[in-house]
Amino acid sequence: MRCTTSQEKKERFLSSPHFAVAGASQDQSRRASKILGWYRNKHMDVIPVHPKAKDLDGLRAVPSIANLPSPSTTALSIATMPPVTLTLLQQARTLSIPSIWIQPGAADQRVIDYIKSNDLSDRVIYGGPCILSEGDGIVHGQWFDEIYDGQF
């Protein structure tokens, strides 16, 4: 398996055709709810994952990542407590979710150990900044590259 840089993982994550956010709620002050709004503002195809809510921020929610319409082409943002994050990672591995961004505070040593012991390091972003801090720059860079495709 080839070593993937953090930047490559982030670019691959944001080039996904579909996105899901685990941890969003009706509370708009929560990080996951802000992340859900970030995707919506970018007109990205995003689905909130919530075990009880039927919809969040005007979007139909699914109770589990197992209920995503196309998990193998969906990038997953996780902003949950570490025990929930660990369960989501286990499910994501089984579902072949290709790219996962664990937001700050959602990972502990058990989560990190699981990532490393299950060969997930090439597709999981963790231990760094939130997508809200870096996402815009990556998306704009991808847009620029797509529009100008090596013309400079």
Automatic annotation (TrEMBL):
Entries under Pfam families matching the protein: CoA_binding_2 (PF13380)
InterPro entries associated with the record: CoA-bd, NAD(P)-bd_dom_sf
Gene3D superfamilies: NAD(P)-binding Rossmann-like Domain
Originating species: Hypsizygus marmoreus
Lineage start: Eukaryota, Fungi, Dikarya, Basidiomycota, Agaricomycotina
Protein name stated in the entry: CoA-binding domain-containing protein
All residue ranges annotated as the CoA-binding domain in the record: 19-133
